[in-house]
Write a structure and sequence with these properties.
- It is a single chain.
- By secondary structure, the protein is mainly alpha-helical.
- The chain has one domain.
- It has seven helices and no strands.
- The relative contact order is 0.08.
- The mean pLDDT is 88.
């Protein structure tokens, strides 16, 4: 019964999307093609629902659900602004991966995931400063690397 409901939901979503895109191609409606990130958000919701509905939570489902939801939101942003911003905003992908590891840490309290999260978010910030703001800020990558070594030494290696 549960499987049939999922298939029915997927079928309705695909039919509605196909109809909307066909109407856009025929000039009846406009803007439907900008809504494609909704599929990424629907997929992320599916992973998160599976994570919360299982007795034994699988951290991979939480990671995928978190990452895909943030990617869907980021893609919506780019659809309604300009994809040319990607040349400066590409470090957001590292930050999104960091957010996925942060979600796993908040669920499991395994420190390694916190360290991965902090490292990826710091790396994203440094890359944004260097490539998005000014190339003169590249020495900050050395500072970030040094800080990450201190964090690993303090939180992970010293037990």
């Amino acid at each position: 019964m549960h499987k049939g409901k999922s298939v029915l939901t997927l079928a309705v979503v695909l039919i509605a999307a196909g109809a909307a895109l066909t109407l856009e191609n025929m000039g009846v409606v406009s803007g439907a093609s900008r809504l494609w990130p909704a599929f990424v958000l629907i997929l992320s919701a599916g992973f998160l629902i599976m994570f919360f509905n299982r007795e034994k939570n699988d951290p991979a489902l939480l990671f995928l659900g978190t990452v895909l939801s943030l990617l869907g939101a980021f893609f919506f942003y780019l659809n309604y602004t300009a994809w040319s911003q990607m040349s400066k905003l590409w470090p957001v992908f590292l930050g999104i991966a960091g957010a996925g590891f942060l979600a796993i840490y908040l669920e499991s309290r395994v420190r390694l995931f916190l360290l991965l999260s902090v490292a990826l978010v710091m790396l994203a910030g440094v890359f944004y400063l260097v490539f998005g703001v000014s190339l003169h800020l590249w020495p900050l990558s050395l500072v970030a690397f040094g800080l990450s070594l201190l964090a690993v030494n303090h939180f992970y290696l010293r037990k």
